[in-house]
Amino acid sequence: MKLKIIAGVCCFYSISALASIEWQTEQGTFKLYGDVEFNIDAASKKKQLTSLRTSANKDFDANDTDQWDINGRILFGLDGKRELANQNYAGFSVQPLADMGGKVNLDDASFYFGKKDDWRLRIGRYEAYDMFPLGQDTFIEYSGNTANDLYSDGFGYIYMMKEGRGRSSNGGAIELTKELGDLNLQVNAMVKDGTSLFDHSRYHGYKLQKDKNVVYLRPIISYRNNDISAALAMERNVVNNAYGYHDINGKWHDQSKRNGYGLTMSWNSAGDFDKSSEGLLLNSSISYLDAEQEKDFTAGINGIWKGIGLGYIYAANDIKAFNTNYRGDGEIYAKGKYKLHTVNASYLISNVMDMDNFNIYLGTYLSRLERDEKQGGGNDNRYGARVRFKYFF
After folding, report:
1. Strand ranges across the sheet with 209-210
2. Which of 29, 155, 201, 322 is positioned for an S-S bond with 330, CB 3.0–4.6 A?
3. How far is CA 197 from the centre of its chain?
4. At a CB cut-off of 8 Å and minimum separation 6, what does 134 contact?
5. First to last CA, the chain
6. pTM for this model (two decimals)
């Protein structure tokens, strides 16, 4: 058995190096790797304004009242792959995750096979194409289970085309990818309990009841060359009456209609995305959700230059109906139009103690919720700061 140390790039939009151990057997190549991510947080007020995750813990709760927090996790990854001389290949990836709360969870657990530079079929637990990259962000890059608890009732929803992206705790996904030179075609299908999208299965003040599983279809067409990438996608639940609620008269209301659309573009002045730490990297994205009793629009832009990250996200929620008998813990408890503004910034301190696998990020954010006149008007603000320790192994 042959053993060697390699270095690579951890993800498409990351600028950090990832060390790993790789060894070769008769059955193919195996790679062991991981990273440590711990945060020290300080917040201005109790509770958040949006459901956007700002914690590395899997058990994220937008109702959290703690103004000070230490959170984080350690990820271990094991990848295996076998490729033949005819370029056919098969492989797997598994990523256990241990958080500071003492729980062991799982990021990816998937199996795939295909032909190099041609096609691939993947099945299991994973994240499909990212339609809202956030660059070097310290507070909101961690999405947890992108298919679970994205919507916390009473909090603003920053829709990012993640409802059908993957990593559900109660369902699986299958994805077919076809490469055509610089073009890439992808269709992801995810089957799960649709009510898991909503924290505590509550939506607009109503307790949701599951009737059947949802099936999200997420077709994507993307393009990438040396310095430009772009993608156009949609996601849609194709199962009617998958979940809903009964009103006081016993009438059933289907809430499972959810159609999302998104566009994202990136540019790297260095002319090579694999060297994104060089030059200026810009990401811009827009997404729109047409759901039952709700319309959401989100637009974001962010950039990275010499370790400095800066981003802005605008979101508009138009809620058509709300149960007035319900008053939750959030800031949204009636129908109407809401606007959300989020600004985040970060600074990378790389190669701490002369170690190329140890980085520290300094980050901050400011969020504002604006209510329309029907809600009495007025704004509500939140802001915070974070120190993130990131160590790769």
Report:
1. 209-210, 243-246, 252-254
2. 155
3. 13
4. 13, 140, 141, 283, 300, 302, 311
5. 21
6. 0.88
